[in-house]
Amino acid sequence: MFRIMHLIRKYARHCRLPVAGGLTAANRLFKVYVSSCFVFFALTSGLSAQNPSSPPQPASSEVWLADLEGPVSPASADHIRRTLNRAADAEIALLVLRINTPGGLDTSMRDIVSAILESPVPVATWVAPSGARAASAGTYIVAASHVAAMSPATNIGSSTPVSMGGNDNESAAGQKAVNDAIAYLQGLQTLRGRNTDWAARTVADAANLTANEALEQGIIDLIAGDTGALLQAANGRSVETNAGNRNIRLDGANVTLIETGWRHNFLSVITNPNIAYILLMIGIYGLILEFYNPGLGLPGITGIICLLVGAYALQMLPISYAGLALMAVGIGLIVFEVLSPSFGVFGLGGLTAFVLGSVMLMDTDAPAWQISLPLIAAVAVASGALIFLVLGAALKARQQPIVTGNEAMARMTAVAMEDFEHQGHVHVSGETWTAKTNTPVKKGDRLRINQIDGLLLHVAKEDRD
What we know:
The protein is α/β, with parallel strands linked by helices. It contains 16 helices and 16 strands. The strands form four sheets. It has a six-stranded parallel β-sheet with strand order 8-5-3-2-1-11, sandwiched between helices. A five-stranded mixed β-barrel has the order 12-13-14-16-15. The longest helix has 27 residues, at 373-399. It is elongated, with a radius of gyration of 42 Å. The termini are far apart.
């Protein structure tokens, strides 16, 4: 500091700065320098107090409550992910996810887990109300949450991959899926500082725990019978979110229930495998009807809309591409049969491929995601009826006499429009033709057409009894 003061005074003497009131210019510059340093250090101290490594705590104690009821599906995954994004924008203190699920799709479960792990907002999963469960996929969601809670008389576990149940667990693919699920659940338990040993038991042996057992074994953090007890127990906890460490402050918390919107309801309907299957069938047969009778409009428009919605739903579901390919081949053969009848060869082959593909379509053994066999049978019967209807129409058409073209005209009768001996004009079905005969013809005579040579008719007088 004194070195700086000496340099300032030297600079003042060199510049011959004036002296005012006994205070040299050097001293005045020094005071300005000291004041500037003070302001600078004050500002930097204020900025350093806001450590960028520590995220700002939420300004409010607002709590959101969202429900995960029923199977874990693409619709529920979409709803929870969107709710977490909104919660991050609103900077709420805590999101409570109330769970009662028997499990669901692995892909949807992983989407929810990823959304929780990426959330800057603390998430408390709460298995509630009493009698609820967090089975299979629900166990992983509870493990991923920052705070894990259960109501009395609830249970958690049975986390064996459903598609690997039964004897499939002994196969190489089944064991691989089980090992993957164990490692995944253990990783989530380790991240949240909970018991990892139980992960192997619940995946490999489908072990289940009650709320009290889960608390004793360190699977969950607390037991709460109602929302108030949950918030009171969670208040003051310090959790590690994606944005850093957060202290959950819930004094005077205001709880807001997040309702599902139209998007969730729409996805819930169309991602039902039976609904998606019906939409697909309506779309395909609507287009077939439009191609068979061009210009109707309504079947084509309805078919395109249903086909696109059904395809959108299927891409969100665990489908077997081999089954989908068989369905496509079967439908293609049925369409070919309708447009170009082959007396059942392509139609019956297509129907067989279509039924097999429908049974194989869903690539999971979970009962909630299977297409109903009676529905497949009903569609197969309808398709078979369409094929036999087309075959019957084709056979009937073959047995009917030809009513167009040269062959049909050869059986018609012409009327002479004038007198002529060898060649003249005749009237046939409202048209005027040039006719040739070997015998004289009078106007008004009825003539039999024997041959058609381009635009020339060979005629002869009809025999009269």
